[in-house]
Specification:
Blueprint lengths: L9 H6 L4 H4 L14 H15 L1 H4 L5 H5 L8 H23 L13 H11 L28 H12 L1 H34 L3 H4 L1 H17 L5 H4 L3 H23 L10 H10 L1 H5 L1 H4 L6 H6 L6 H29 L7 H4 L6 H32 L9 E2 L8 E2 L1 H18 L2 H29 L5 H23 L2 H35 L4 H8 L5 E11 L7 H9 L2 E13 L11 E5 L7 E8 L8 H27 L24 H6 L15 H14 L1 E11 L6 H17 L3 H5 L6 E9 L1
Parallel strand pairs: 3-4, 3-7, 4-6, 7-8
Antiparallel strand pairs: 1-2, 5-6
Helix pairs in contact: 3-13, 3-18, 6-14, 6-18, 7-9, 7-22, 9-11, 9-20, 9-21, 9-22, 9-24, 11-21, 13-18, 13-20, 22-23, 22-24, 24-30, 27-29
Length: about 775
């Protein structure tokens, strides 16, 4: 249909035969309302203690030991390092994340892909051209254009949208940020559990500590299948007890040994420290930085809570407890500097040693659990946006939609953690690798949030520059310090991030190329008109659901199917499962339908929209929802048609091709089809009498059986393409595709209802 050549009003088209018909039903209910009762916010703040702060809360176990790996040469160095710790915590977790970055969320969800999706909604920078006007009407889309737009923001927006390099760069940053968090998910369990168990190293030896750590890690990953909701039922109380322990012990040591360490709040001690130690002081920043590992978890795990809950729990519980502990350790080390290699356990009063050890192991396991769950979540996001090979995503909670479990990734993580523990053996060596992964993600977040502040929030240039320079330079300083430890273990997260970035980049590259191939080779309206006169093409009873990622038009696999098997079901629905750059799509807004003209063909296009935190329901539920929404679409379309026909004159003498038969109300007319002499063939279904008859026809087709048709597309590089393209497509992508799940396995489609259609795509 060439609707652009016909003067049909947008309002009429919107009301009758358009995907906009379904998009107009808006729930206006956001997943994370900005205003929430204080009782609920306080309860979420309590829950967040157990989920978000396990990593940063267990950092006191190893920070001083990592900062002074050999010994403390000058007692005043303790004050300098303590001052660095205090202002690092205040600057990055408190100012950057708690009070700035948390507001750059995507409908309550955080992480690198959440930032990327937020940018994609306001700027046309997505590499896959599947945007539709209907998407902007989603209740979770929230495109709020200010009344006074700055020319600078608009100009930068145009530059980014018109620059292919900038669009690729944004996607690469999102992918690399995700890869860094995945690396963090591997290193956090290793260093957290190992540091907690190291409390018994003096009596059993380091090899025994490593062995016990590996056993705990195996148990930890084995119970992941039960889900965070069940595994973490007691997280908040345990972490709250942990914060009580470390805060109380810190205050006890502070008053017992040297309350004078509070002088470290005066930043002059930082300058004195660097002046006294020079290059060695700069190198020690790698250990100091470990005091804020886990800060990115506040943003990545935001989807379970809200901004106010995170702000309250960090400001009033986490921050005071860890600052008290660091001050207490510093006071202890001022008197016993020789015990720096095990400062945390050495500073514990004898009567509290074993209770603290038990709680420390529990807190370390919880810290590991939080990062593992976060890694599952962001991999699920990457999968939904076409940036990760297909894996099985299992929802583990009916209460929290964001809690998922990925079996393949879980056991890969377990093997990787065991290898890291066995190879590095000590927290000092693991810390060399740990900081680079965290800093890489932080620097990417700083860059993306700066862009959001500039283009979306439209903040003044000096505010954006201050944010970027202050936090960017601070993180860059720490990053350069960490890079000096490259050979000591820092190579691990860099190699892992590059590998994961390559995997996700290759998958997205071919995923986009496949989409562009289908878009360029979609079935034309002329081909559908020719089907009417083909006597060898028959309709068979039943309903066929043909899956494709194409949201504009009919995929080329349909033409290939008709050529191979000249039969098609009495009702055909072309289903496109489309990822939307939002966290979730409300169920009543998920399905969009449209007739494929002529309507007598009983063919429909259906776009199933989902956010990156949505997981498709089981097959029976999905099938039922699709058919129910199809019936609802037919009823509403019929109602709108009757309403429009009451105010317009129906034209019955249109001398135009069948596929272009459309009256002024935007609907086809069976009278006009008959008047121009359409021959009845085996392909054409009985004439449409009304909505009730059409719904009955669909119900009968469903009773005959629903068949799922999937394209078994073999993707190969074009013969005249470059060598690099051939390596990426023919070998790398082919390997990933064969060793990860196929589409039918992902949706658990029964074999007796599955029809695979083979086709080769040359890209």
């Amino acid at each position: 249909m060439k609707l652009k050549e016909r003067k049909v009003s947008w309002a009429k088209l919107r009301r009758v035969d358009s995907l906009n018909l379904e998009a107009g039903r808006i729930s206006m209910v956001a997943d994370h309302p900005s205003k929430m009762p204080w009782r609920t916010t306080l309860f979420l703040a309590f829950q967040s203690i157990g989920i978000v702060y396990g990593d940063i809360g267990t950092s006191p176990l190893y920070v001083f030991a990592s900062t002074f790996p050999k010994s403390i040469k000058n007692n005043d160095d303790i004050l300098g390092v303590l001052s660095l710790i205090i202002y690092t915590i205040v600057l990055i977790p408190m100012l950057k994340y708690v009070f700035i970055v948390l507001w750059a969320n995507d409908n309550g969800n955080g992480g690198a892909f959440a930032l990327y999706s937020l940018i994609c909604r306001h700027l046309k920078v997505s590499l896959i051209p599947n945007q539709q006007p209907e998407d902007r009407e989603l209740s979770n889309y929230k495109l709020e254009t200010p009344s006074s737009q700055l020319k600078r923001a608009q100009k930068l927006k145009q530059i980014l949208e018109n620059s292919h390099f900038a669009r690729i760069l944004l996607l690469v940053l999102a992918i690399m940020g995700t890869a860094m968090v995945i690396g963090d998910g591997i290193l956090t369990p290793s260093i957290s559990v190992l540091s907690a168990v190291s409390g018994i190293s003096t009596s059993l030896g380091q090899n025994a500590v490593v062995g016990i750590t590996i056993v705990i890690l195996i148990i930890l990953f084995s119970v992941q299948q039960f889900g965070t909701d069940k595994v973490g039922v007691s997280f908040a109380p345990i972490i709250l007890v942990w914060f009580s322990f470390i805060g109380g012990i810190g205050l006890y040591n502070l008053f017992k040994y040297d309350i004078g360490v509070l002088r470290a709040f005066y930043p002059k001690y930082i300058f004195d420290y660097f002046k006294r130690n020079g290059k060695q002081g700069w190198l020690s920043l790698g250990g100091v930085f470990l005091c804020i590992t886990g800060s990115e978890a506040m943003f990545a795990d935001l989807g379970h809570f809200n901004v106010r809950a995170i702000q309250i729990s960090f400001s009033f519980v986490t921050c005071p407890a860890i600052l008290a502990q660091y001050c207490g350790q510093a006071a202890f080390l001022r008197k016993f500097p020789e015990k720096v290699d095990n400062a945390f356990y050495a500073s514990i009063p004898h009567s509290l040693y074993w209770p603290t050890f038990v709680v420390a192991v529990g807190a370390a396991i919880i810290a590991s659990q939080a990062m593992i769950s976060g890694a599952f979540s962001i991999i699920s996001q990457a999968l939904s946006l076409g940036c990760f090979p297909r894996v099985k995503v299992v929802h583990t909670s009916t209460k929290h939609r964001g809690q998922v479990y990925i079996p393949e990734v879980n056991y890969m993580f377990m093997i990787a953690c065991i290898v890291v523990c066995a190879a590095f053996k000590t927290t000092e060596k693991i810390s060399h690798a740990y900081g680079i992964a965290v800093l890489g993600d932080m620097m990417i977040s700083t860059s993306l949030v700066s862009l959001i502040m500039l283009v979306i929030w439209k903040k003044s240039l000096w505010r954006v520059a201050t944010f970027f320079l202050v936090f960017g330079c601070t993180e860059l300083l720490y990053f350069t310090s960490q890079l000096t430890k490259f050979t000591g273990g820092g190579y691990l997260p860099i190699a892992l991030a590059l590998f994961l970035t390559a995997v996700m980049g290759i998958w997205h590259y071919v995923h986009r190329a496949r989409y562009m191939f289908e878009l360029k080779n979609k079935v034309s309206s002329e081909y559908l008109r020719e089907l009417v006169n083909k006597e060898d093409v028959n309709r068979v009873p039943g309903m066929g659901l043909l899956y494709s990622e194409l949201v504009q038009g009919i995929p080329p696999i349909f033409q290939h199917l008709i050529a191979s098997v000249p039969s098609v079901h009495s009702v055909v629905v072309f289903v496109s499962i489309k990822a939307i750059p939002v966290s979730r799509v409300a169920s009543e807004e998920r399905f969009l339908f449209r007739h494929v003209e002529p309507r007598e063909y009983r063919m429909f296009r259906c776009v199933v929209r989902h956010g990156y935190n949505d997981v498709l329901e089981d097959l029976a539920e999905f099938e039922s929802e699709l058919i129910q929404n199809l019936k609802r679409f037919i009823q509403q379309e019929s109602f709108m048609q009757l309403e429009v026909e009451g105010t317009t004159t129906t034209t019955t003498e249109l001398q135009v091709p069948v596929s272009n038969i459309i009256n002024e109300s935007g609907t086809t007319s069976s009278d006009s089809i008959q008047s121009i002499g359409v021959k009845s063939s085996s392909f054409t279904a009985p004439p449409i009498q009304g909505a009730e008859e059409e719904i009955k026809f669909i119900e009968k087709a469903k009773e005959k059986g629903v068949v799922y048709m999937l394209a078994e597309a073999e993707v190969v590089a074009q013969p005249n393409s470059s060598i690099l393209n051939k390596i990426v497509v023919n070998y790398a992508y082919s390997f990933l595709r064969k060793n990860f799940r196929q589409g039918d396995n992902l949706m658990a489609i029964p074999r007796n209802r599955l029809l695979k259609v083979g086709m080769t795509y040359e890209i």
